[in-house]
Amino acid sequence: MYKKILIISSDITGSGHKSITESMLEQFRHYPEINVKVIEGFSLSGVLGLQVGKMYGSITRTSKEAWKLIWDITERRPSLMIEMGEATIFDRFVKLLNEMNPDAIITTHPNYNASITNILERINVNIPLFAVVADPVTISPLWCNPKARYTICPTEEARETCLKSGVPEDRIRVFGFPVRQRFYSHLTSADGKNYFDASQADYFPKNPLRFMIMSGGEGSGNMSRLARILLKNFDCSVRLLCGRNRLLKRRLEHTLLEKYPERIEVLGYTENVQALMLTSDILFVRAGPNTMMEAVMCNVPMVITGALPGQEEGNPGYAVKYGLGVICSEASSLKKVVASLLANNYEKLLDIKKKQVNFRNPNSAKDIVNFIINN
Length: 375
Fold this sequence. Notes:
Helix content is 44%, strand content 15%. The protein is of the alpha/beta class. The chain has 2 domains: 4-181 and 362-373, Glycogen Phosphorylase B (Rossmann fold); 209-359, Rossmann fold (3-Layer(aba) Sandwich). The strands form 2 sheets. It has a 6-stranded parallel beta sheet with strand order 2-1-3-4-5-6, with helices on both faces. The chain has a 6-stranded parallel beta sheet with strand order 9-8-7-10-11-12, with helices on both faces. Strand 5 (150-153), helix 6 (156-164) and strand 6 (172-174) form a beta-alpha-beta unit.
């Protein structure tokens, strides 16, 4: 069993990598003899690296075309990105190794994945690296590192992509998508027994319906228009989560609260998302993988309203494939899409909930950590 583990993650490029890291840290706490240290990956490239990482939020909010260009460059020239990463992190990473002397390294962000194994090879240090892939379908080539001890995938779709990109089959494992405990703690009874596979047969929506629109951790999306369509056409209340986008929050408060004071709630970034999901009948959300899997764990049907180009492109289709939600890529179709979920006494809505129950796996983070410490 490893005694010292280094995790390379990121808190500044959205909330997803941080969420996955937190889900594993929760499981590592069951092993107090293991010392786990988490490092912001972009800090290994110094001030410039941190500045580049912090641009993620503004780019994904305001210029999806620019983000698509970055993604395309990475897909076409992954070796260039790896070489750049290796050059910019070398000195700081070697210093970190000397200070901590870890027994194993885990990456939950792709950017420095192969750069790290290249550096370890250069300095002739044998430390196993475990890459915990953060995307279910559309995988950055930077995840696909044949030199990693193991590449841990959330889905069979991710596994297939890694195989096609040259990762040896015997170095890939699939454990499902790791989710933080607070999103599945409601699945444990008072006596400590789990009922993960229990269906919610007693659930039935009641008017007014409770809708929630999420913008993602960075705050993006046409939330005002979506909310107006829902409020105009359905007996409902609408809760809007704006993430870290304070300007969006103020704008929504100004434009919607005055007109719908009893039916609208506008919130910023919150650590209590699971409670809000559990009290929602339908979630309207961008196809960020962490939010999608957290919603599945909370058993709230999703209407997926968009996806970032690049790593999120395959996620809407993935949700539909497994019956976890539906797609509404145009606001003009929102009324029709929601009406179809509510038709025939909520038939489609209830079917999605049943499929989510059959799909979810609250043990993923536990299984990942147990595998890592024993390999």
